[in-house]
């Protein structure tokens, strides 16, 4: 806090103005200290982080596309499969191919989880190891 003491035109009034220069000096010193120490603190342990990849859906002829509608009916490349035994036999025929095909499951939003679960269980029983779920990308606006 600054005061004016003993000036010629002193009316006896005290000047109530705060001198902010020392405060600004201290804040600048603290800012410089933080700018120097923060990069050292954040990079103490070297870790290689995974990079995000956005893979486009690729339909290959060897992929198996299974669609499950809201009623739980299963379709193999748009052909209706009447029961799980027929689905299992079709999957076992394709599971011996090398390279083994991927199974892409397209499930309706209204499909019950148990219908999709039965399809996944049947795919696993057939011995196919690669299962993928096909989803609709979010609308960009």
What are the main properties of this structure?
cell inner membrane, 13% strand, Biopolymer transporter ExbD, alpha/beta, 141 residues, elongated, five-stranded mixed β-sheet, Nucleotidyltransferase, domain 5, 34% helix, single chain, transmembrane helix, ExbD
- The N- to C-terminal Cα distance equals 56 Å
Could you estimate the helical fraction of the residues in percent?
Answer: 25-40%
What is the β-strand count? Answer: 5
Q: What is the structural class?
A: alpha/beta
Percentage of residues in DSSP E strands: 5-15%
**What is the residue-mean pLDDT, rounded to a whole number?**
81
Characterize the largest beta sheet: strand count, sense, and whether it forms a barrel: 5 strands, mixed
Strand order of the largest sheet: 3-2-1-4-5
Shape: elongated
Number of helices: 3
Low-confidence residue ranges: none
CA-atom Rg in angstroms: 35 Å
CATH fold label of the domain at 64-133: Nucleotidyltransferase, domain 5
What's the level 1 CATH class of the domain at 64-133?
Alpha Beta
Level-2 CATH architecture of the domain at 64-133: 2-Layer Sandwich
H/E element order: HEEEHEHE
Give a quick precis of the structure.
The protein is of the alpha/beta class and 141 residues long. 34% of the residues lie in helices and 13% in strands.
